[in-house]
Amino acid sequence: MEIGRIHSNSARFKTKWNKAVELCAEQLTLHKNAYVACSGGKDSNVLAFLVAEAAKMTGTAFKLWCHISDASFPGTEETVINVCKAIGVEPDIFRSPFSAYEKLAADKQKRAFGKSGAYFDSVREYAKDKDLCFTGVRAYESKRRMRAARVKGQVFRSESMGHIDCCYPLLWFRLEDVAAATYMLNIPIHPIYGKQPIDMGKNANGEDRFIRLGYITSRDLLDKGTAVFLQVNYPDIFNKLREFFPDIGAKV
């Protein structure tokens, strides 16, 4: 937050923020039924405030959608609700009808939430009457995202999201830009960011590594330090996960 306070006064950040608002405003005027996919994490919370500012500029409306299951980290739903209260939008919260832990135990090969799993099934269902999805994806978070960003750009058509246009207003934001927006607008912060980080240093794109909010049962995250993060910061959750996924013991 101290980095955000300092960076929020920079001309570079203000220019980047204004361009992102303009992109959102443009897309809102080109579509009739837009929504924000919000995880409660730092990026999607900033995204919600960004789209809300653009909606006020254009006199348009949008929905905000969040997927909640027993694999959501504690505080996720509360954070999303607080974000929605701040921007004056009623959240559409989807609650998974089954246990992600049981899904993980039953499916040894695939992630519990993937393009063929519970999360994307609910995404596609929600998108049936929508024509635009705003998502808080940032290119600098990983090599894979950077490659995809260079190919797809900030606006593209997505079949996996439900035959809908997708817009990534934060695509070229760096971590300090997210911190600056969070400080500038006093955006609610998920409690996970007050926990002890495990994976520090720089990533492949030269960005500071920081805590990332995902799903507890995501296999790809369990391979990237989340198992250790859980053991240190959420020991009760770690022990529950180990009951359904014994292999987690080999990852810490």
Note down, in words, how this protein is organized.
This protein is an alpha/beta fold. Helices cover 46% and strands 11% of the residues. The chain contains ten helices and six strands. It has helices at 2-7, 11-30, 42-58, 76-87, 100-106, 118-126, 143-152, 175-185, 219-233, 235-244; strands at 34-37, 63-68, 91-95, 132-135, 155-158, 164-167. It has a six-stranded mixed beta sheet, with helices on both faces. Strand 5 (155-158) and strand 6 form a beta hairpin. Helix 3 (42-58) runs parallel beside helix 4, helix 3 crosses helix 8 and helix 9 (219-233) crosses helix 10 (235-244). The protein is globular and about 50 Å long. The two termini are 30 Å apart.
Helix percent reads: 40-55%
Task: Return residue spans where pLDDT drops below 50 for at least 5 consecutive residues.
Answer: none
Number of strands: 6
Along the chain, the helix and strand elements come as HHEHEHEHHEHEEHHH
Structural class per helix/strand content? alpha/beta
Shape call: globular
Mean pLDDT: 91
The radius of gyration computed from the alpha-carbon positions, rounded to a whole number of angstroms, is 18 Å
The main sheet comes to: 6 strands, mixed
Oligomer status: single chain
Distance between the termini: 30 Å
Proportion of strand residues:
5-15%
Q: What is the tally of helical segments?
A: 10
The spatial strand order of the largest sheet comes to 3-2-1-4-6-5
